[in-house]
Amino acid sequence: MLFEGNERKELERKMKAEGRLPSGQAATLKWPVLHYGSVPRFDPQTWDFRVYGTVERPIRLTWTELNQQPKCQTTSDFHCVTRWSRFDNHWTGVLASRILKLAGIKLEARFVLVHAEQGYTANLPLEDLLRGGVILATHHDGQTLSAEHGYPLRLIVPHLYAWKSVKWVRGFEVLEKNVPGFWEQNGYHIYGDPWKEQRFSDY
Questions:
Q1: What pTM does this model have?
Q2: What residues contact residue 22 under an 8 Å CB cut-off, 6+ apart?
Q3: How many domains does the chain have?
Q4: What counts of helices (H) and strands (E) characterise the chain?
Q5: What is the model's pLDDT at position 4?
Q6: Which end of the chain is more exposed for a tag (fewer CB within 10 A), N or C?
């Protein structure tokens, strides 16, 4: 335990020196499990992923169809609003931008309400979801996602606090106006930039 503590402190010093640790955050070597509600069961026969709303072609992808999309790998840091940060996470999955473009985003679209199991939602500006490092991940650090970390599919938005990296994601509702998601309706910041410490709502 002492060795692990020293390793964590050394990592934290290194990340601070490199400018990768946002203010108010502490480095972790582990990957804590945090979520609202229970872990849902996954049935590949009934599971689907939808893109709808302000789009040209609403789409519904089965689990098989989603996995037929071109895969990519990204590496990014992960900052939780509860003040821990995990560095150099390796993700494998499908770019969120690719799935959105399949549906043909209309010019008036500005935001996306991300839908997940059990009615959970999170809101994002469309331009944030189209960024290159934003991925619909199926694997983390070379292993299939565990159920408690979002299997079968987790949205990863590395430049925002991790509540925006929605577990058990099931769809994108493309919108013209910003609609607050679950945590945003319960006191969290509407955007959630860790570099500005946008943890909670200021109104």
A1: 0.94
A2: 79, 85, 194, 195, 197
A3: 1
A4: 4, 11
A5: 63
A6: C
